[in-house]
Structure prediction request, 268 residues.
Amino acid sequence: MNALLPYTPPTITRHLHGANSAVNRNRNAHGLNHNVCERIDGVAVADLAARFGSPLFVFSERTLRDKIRRAREAFESRYPNTRFAWSYKTNYLNAICRVFHSEGSIAEVVSEFEYEKARRNGIAGRDIIFNGPHKTREGLELAVSEGAMIQVDNWDELLLHYAVAFERRLMAEVQRFEPQASEWLHSITWQFKADNCPVTGMPPAGTWTGAPVAVSLLDTGGGPGSDDDEPMSELEQDLAQLMAVRDSALAELRSDVPDFAATQPGVR
Prediction:
């Protein structure tokens, strides 16, 4: 690996006046520009116009690859862990995006449309930076499920991010003791107090999206087959009532299923 170059501090060049001003040094600012590009990568512009018509937008793959390689080398010479991300909003033509991806760039998107384009271009969710201030719940849920890097742009979005993370973790915990929960639990309602923003006291979203911690499953106490005579806690009573509602509903739906049995609370 090449040795890192010494750090070069940024410089600011003062604008010049008179004949040396920026506008006077710009040859394109004074009438007809005589420095005409007649060929692109060795192909005559006149031939391209004759074949495809005019106006015509032409992109040089050779130039694109040269630019991204030079930019990457410049940054990596000082910051080895640099990683480039191609901004889809700059140009989301698939051919252009794939050139940058083939040169090692991940994707930066600002909408579900661009997110889906990046996935179709072979970019894994974990290699997508999901930006933009108007993310929908559906788009955020997809990004969370695929491990995308999410740029939170406002407080509403932050709270939505927490809600999605919390509900996914809660459903995972519910399904640990009730694998059929997805068949009968269709929604979750929850709330928290947030008088003013910024909201304080909220744990990181990773608290809910990380790997589940090892915990013992609920022992209701005093249930069928239990020698514990202590009364159930309030939480355990609520859970028992919830399971009873669930069993009643499933019994009506599955009255013709011979092996259907009611939920038996206890350690499994």
